[in-house]
Amino acid sequence: MTNLTTKATNAMTFLPHRTSKYGVFALVFGAVALIPVGASAAPSGTMGPKNPPAASARAAPEASFRLQGSLVKLATYRGRKRMIWEVATWCGSCKAGLKAFAHHQALIDKSDMKIIVLRDYKNGGYPGITIDKFAAKVAPSLLKDPHFVFGEATKAFGAAYNPRHFVDIYQLIDARNRIVLTSSAPSVTFGKIEHFIASGAK
């Protein structure tokens, strides 16, 4: 990057005085464009807490997410156990979590639980593949499983369920529409999810 900047500076030194300011801008912009893409920082973000302090169950707020381009209300799945999991498709723990669900798919399929996997609003602040491509790449068997839904969080959904913009966070919601647990990293905390599935109420 230093060499590129030096070359750009030297080139401007020898420019004729009649060169317009737009020509100088074009030269500098061209030099910056030559900087390797790999020089930019890798995506990073904060994961949700895996063991937050226990809290009283509270009503799950109503919100809508995008499913194949259409808005779907969370209330569509009311009356059954649900897990809402917001992920970023560049997130390592999210990839591991999806693999954990594929590993425990038989357990999920025996339950009445619906697992709603949503790509974070704006993918946690970085570009990345779509949620469907992410699932197809990491755990393709889940895409055809009726217990799983893959969609995109809207800004309003993120404000309701992920206001601190964690890149990996989930809520477990019981059949009475109460959030009974908030955590993250399903590959590490799957025991909590399994306990929720096995609990008395649907």
**Main β-sheet: number of strands, strand sense, barrel status?**
8 strands, mixed
Radius of gyration: 23 Å
Give the termini separation. 59 Å
What fraction, in percent, of the residue positions are helical? 25-40%
Separate helix tally: 7
Which structural category do the helix and sheet elements fall into? alpha+beta
Shape: globular
Poorly predicted sequence stretches spanning 5 or more consecutive residues:
1-39
Question: Could you walk me through the main structural features you see in this protein, from its secondary elements to its overall organization?
Answer:
The protein is of the alpha+beta class and 202 residues long. 35% of the residues lie in helices and 20% in strands. The chain is built from seven helices and eight strands. An eight-stranded mixed sheet has the order 1-8-7-4-5-6-2-3. Strand 7 (168-173) and strand 8 form a beta hairpin. Helix 1 packs antiparallel against helix 2 (21-33) and helix 3 (92-103) crosses helix 7 (186-198). The model is unreliable at 1-39 (pLDDT under 50).
